[in-house]
């Protein structure tokens, strides 16, 4: 080393910089200054609810694609002859989970059941299905004593 004086000066600068860094990390935070804003008359301002979800909005990715109308499909069902009872068949219904909205301690699960969207909380009923339970990756719906599991999509 050519000069001890330069070494001591650089050492003092390093200690000062690291001291400021340690003080910023370890020092307790100061109380924030009170936010002074002019009073606003809230009776004239409409309240905006942040926990809302708009359903039936136009999908921006499906512009120009014609949506199928419910009246476009027709179902023809043949009735059994008069003397015989038709065996009971289970109707196939499409169940899918679209998402979950949680706000204020309440959880709503958005489901599509047979092409219609429903918002269900625990123990709510829609289209004959009752939401009986939910865990980390599935929802459980009960209909006529049969429990159906639906995978959650928000994982």
Write the layout of secondary structure elements.
Layout: H1 4-26, E1 95-103, E2 106-113, E3 116-120, E4 125-126, E5 129-134, E6 138-143, E7 146-151
Low-pLDDT stretches: none
> What is the H/E string?
HEEEEEEE
Distance between the termini: 61 Å
User: What would the principal axes of the Cα set say about the shape?
Assistant: elongated
- Mean pLDDT figure: 76
Radius of gyration, in Å, reads 32 Å
> Which sheet architecture does the biggest sheet show?
4 strands, antiparallel
Provide the descriptors you would attach to this structure in a database record.
1 helix; 4-stranded antiparallel beta sheet; 155 residues; 3-stranded antiparallel beta sheet; 15% helix; elongated; 7 strands; alpha+beta
């Amino acid at each position: 080393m050519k000069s001890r004086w330069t070494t001591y000066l650089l050492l003092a600068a390093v200690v000062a910089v690291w001291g400021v860094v340690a003080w910023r990390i370890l020092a307790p935070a100061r109380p924030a200054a009170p936010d002074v804003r002019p009073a606003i008359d809230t009776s004239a301002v409409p309240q905006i609810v942040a926990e809302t979800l708009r359903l039936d909005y136009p999908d921006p990715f499906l512009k120009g694609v014609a949506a199928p109308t419910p009246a476009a499909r027709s179902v023809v069902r043949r009735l059994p002859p008069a003397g015989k009872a038709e065996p009971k068949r289970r109707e196939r219904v499409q169940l899918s989970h679209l998402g979950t909205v949680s706000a204020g301690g309440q959880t709503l699960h958005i489901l599509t059941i047979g092409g219609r969207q429903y918002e269900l909380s625990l123990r709510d009923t829609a289209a004959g299905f009752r939401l009986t339970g939910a865990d980390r990756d599935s929802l459980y719906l009960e209909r006529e004593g049969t429990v159906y599991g639906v995978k959650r999509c928000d994982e």
